[in-house]
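Re: the 112-residue chain
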Amino acid sequence: MKSHRQIKFALVTSNTLAEKIQNWESYEVLEQEQYLDLIDYSKELIRESANHEITFLVVAKGSDAEEDREGEKQKDLEKALEDKKVKDEISKERMGELREKSKNILNSLYGI
C-alpha cells in the first residue's frame, strides 16, 4: 500500500526551531480539528496521486540541557564544515600549483 509511505509523521524537540518557524511565511496556526482534517485530506490526495509526499511535523520545545547538546552538535558540525571548506580550498590551490608546474614541465620539454 503505497499511500502509507507518502505521509510521514515526525517529532522534533527544539526551542530554537519552535521560535524560528513562527516567522516563516508558510507558518500556519491550526486548531486540533483542522489539523486532523488536514491529515485525512492528505490521505485522499495521496490516494488520487502518488506524486504527493506530505510530512506532518510536530515541534516541541526541548529541555535546556537538550538544547545545549544540540547547540554544541551544531557548532561542531559548523566547525567541521568550515574545516572541510578550508581543506578543499587548500587542495584546489595545491592542484592549481601542481597543474601549473606540469604545464611548465611539458611546455619546456616540447618547446611550447
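The radius of gyration is 26 Å.
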